[in-house]
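[recover] target loaded
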């Protein structure tokens, strides 16, 4: 366990320098969750599903005076960091939950990645989608670290780089299998007798549809906004968008950046949210994330 001071002046504990870099860029450089079309107000109930080491909680503490926050992190090693960082930086009194959310409750195997813990997942690491996203992440990291090398890599055809990228992916993705507890979101709503969730943020490395599958029909009306980072390309984002539209949400779609095209950001809200300040990006989305025009994504949509 190491500690560092972020540019905002807060001290945080972490294990993986590469993961901390990714998270810091997402939350504090690109401010993915502080967009004008993501609303959080004092008194809100906010779910952080896939809390990792707690940087979103830190961000919420900077922007809100009071809120009911639930942070979900199933991996014991990462949860230890979440607890440590919350003890230093959390004045909102967040509820820290050492379990994940999914379609069903039980004990499940996770692949924990010590060298890049932000990529740890309940999905199999050997799927074609996961291998592709891993190679994309490695490519992006090399481009960021070396200007000259980055230029050369961008000029080379991706097939020629495949052996190198795949070798580096396997090295960085040397997993440990860990059994973790998983519950459904509806179980949590029942346990805490929650009448509403004002913002549901989901970033769970490929299991986003499972989290939504754990919401019983009678609980959907209690959710006002969702921000979901999907990991398996526009097809998965299309499925999630269609499900949310079916539940009465308006959708704003953000594609991944050019270097990580498999990542998409789906933002959904009820029509009454921010109704006094409508945003043109929201609509009853009926197109495809792979073909429909959309606004430009921030670089933090990793």
């Amino acid at each position: 366990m190491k500690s560092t001071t972020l540019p905002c002046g807060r001290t945080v504990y972490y294990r993986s320098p590469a993961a901390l870099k990714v998270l810091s860029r997402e939350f504090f450089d690109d401010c993915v969750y502080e967009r004008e079309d993501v609303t959080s107000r004092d008194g809100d109930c906010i779910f952080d599903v896939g809390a990792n080491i707690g940087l979103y909680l830190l961000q919420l503490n900077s922007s809100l005076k009071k809120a009911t926050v639930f942070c979900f992190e199933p991996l014991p090693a990462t949860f230890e960091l979440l607890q440590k960082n919350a003890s230093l930086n959390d004045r909102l009194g967040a509820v820290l939950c050492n379990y994940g959310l999914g379609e069903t409750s039980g004990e499940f195997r996770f692949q924990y990645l010590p060298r890049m813990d932000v990529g740890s997942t309940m999905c199999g690491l050997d799927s074609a989608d996961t291998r592709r996203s891993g190679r994309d992440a490695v490519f992006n990291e090399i481009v960021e670290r070396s200007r000259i090398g980055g230029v050369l890599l961008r000029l080379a055809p991706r097939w020629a780089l495949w052996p190198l990228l795949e070798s580096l992916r396997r090295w960085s993705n040397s997993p440990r299998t860990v059994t973790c507890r998983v519950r459904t979101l509806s179980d949590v709503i029942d346990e805490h007798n929650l009448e509403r969730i004002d913002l549901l943020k989901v970033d769970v490395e490929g299991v986003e549809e499972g989290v939504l599958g754990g919401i019983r029909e009678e609980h959907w009306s209690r959710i006002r906004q969702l921000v979901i980072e999907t990991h398996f390309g526009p097809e998965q984002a299309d499925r999630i968008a269609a499900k949310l539209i079916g539940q009465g949400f308006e959708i704003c779609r953000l594609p991944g950046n050019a270097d990580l095209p498999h990542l998409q950001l789906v933002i959904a809200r009820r029509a009454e949210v921010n109704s006094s300040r409508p945003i043109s990006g929201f609509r009853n989305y009926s197109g495809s994330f792979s073909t429909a025009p959309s606004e430009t994504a921030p670089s933090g949509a990793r």
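[recover] notes: Confidence is low (pLDDT under 50) at residues 275-287, 289-302.
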